[in-house]
Amino acid sequence: MSIIKCNELLYIRRSVPDVTQVETFLNRFGLITCAKQGESVYLRATDPVHHCYILEQGPARLLGFAFLAKCEADLRTLAAGTGRDVEEITEPGGGLRVRLKEPNGYDVDIVYGIAVPEPINVERQAVNTGREPTLRADEPLRLPRGQATPVKRIAHVVLGTPLVEETAAWFRETLGMLPSDEVFRTAGGEQIASFLRVDKGAEHVDHHAFLPMRSDTAGFQHVSFESQDIDAVMADHHYLKSMGYEHLWGIGRHLLGSQLFDYWNDPLGYAHEHWADSDRLSATATTGVWEAKEGMVTQWGEGASEQFRHNVKP
């Protein structure tokens, strides 16, 4: 029995030595600057969420990330159950939070009441497919060129950690997350990953919102964003390439989660994923158990490089 059952991932918070440099990358990746406070920058996607990325001035490191509480009462239940206070958020968007520490020492904010903006409309044309070949009848497909496609939302964060089991247990027991797939080095051997989704009952949610993955040291492995569609993943691959950024892995399709993916490093070497078309599961879905050689593979596309597997930053 967990203390509460949280809602989806809401934002990530980092400190960087040059805020403008990383903000520029994120704008070109598809995020939209929406607010500034002092030296901090807040960026959003097109879904109606005030911000999904915070950059602060400071040494390069991950500070933490946030999940949404389902109601204010849950926030107060969490505060009582953890001995923490409910704090007012004095940043753009306002709201309330309970700030926790997960086993690797990163802040996990559980928030409620942040201002909800209007969604940003992005016009996308229909796609003619084999089963529905006339969705765009008499209408040529014309994609925007020479610019980023705004991303839809933040989707998941992956932490490298030597404490896979302890970290996964903390998120299950504190925030009510459910394991979609568990990955072990060999059958009955060391666990190397736990794909955790939020519990929203009968509602279907992303295959994972948080993933602890085996690493010698704790740190940021990657943060992931849903693109508007598969065309956006492909077009933005070429746009980021034209901007001279470092491509890390992709394009391919994962087995676990099934996303069509593409990974890019920001100027500090922190990995960011574009994806489209993920598995969606309800709370009743069973947990898959895999050996790494069977589960941590692509359905098509090249396998993960050594650089990707070891791309863990503080």
CATH fold description: 2,3-Dihydroxybiphenyl 1,2-Dioxygenase, domain 1
CATH architecture: Roll
Structural class: alpha+beta
User: Given this structure, which CATH class is correct?
Assistant: Alpha Beta
Gross morphology is globular
Largest sheet, order of strands side by side? Answer: 19-10-11-13-9-14-17-16-15-20
Annotation field: number of helices: 6
Distance between the termini: 31 Å
Give the strand tally: 20
The helix/strand series, from N terminus to C terminus, equals EHEEEEHEEEEHEEEEEHEEEEEHEH
Low-confidence stretches: none
Beta-strand content bin: 35-45%
- The percent range for helix content is 10-25%
> What is the averaged pLDDT score?
97
How many separate domains?
Answer: 1
Description of the structure:
- It contains six helices and 20 strands.
- The chain has 314 residues and is α+β, with helices and mostly antiparallel strands.
- It has one domain: 2,3-Dihydroxybiphenyl 1,2-Dioxygenase, domain 1 (Roll), CATH 3.10.180.10.
- The mean pLDDT is 97.
- Keywords: Dioxygenase, Metal-binding, Oxidoreductase.
- It comes from Caballeronia cordobensis.
Layout of strands and helices, then pairs:
Elements: E1 9-16, H1 19-29, E2 32-37, E3 40-44, E4 53-57, E5 61-68, H2 72-82, E6 87-88, E7 96-101, E8 107-112, E9 153-161, H3 164-175, E10 178-184, E11 191-197, E12 205-206, E13 210-214, E14 219-226, H4 230-242, E15 246-254, E16 260-265, E17 271-276, E18 280-281, E19 288-291, H5 292-295, E20 298-300, H6 306-309
Parallel strand pairs: 1-4, 5-8, 9-13, 10-19, 14-17
Antiparallel strand pairs: 1-5, 2-3, 3-4, 6-7, 7-8, 9-14, 10-11, 11-13, 12-18, 15-16, 15-20, 16-17
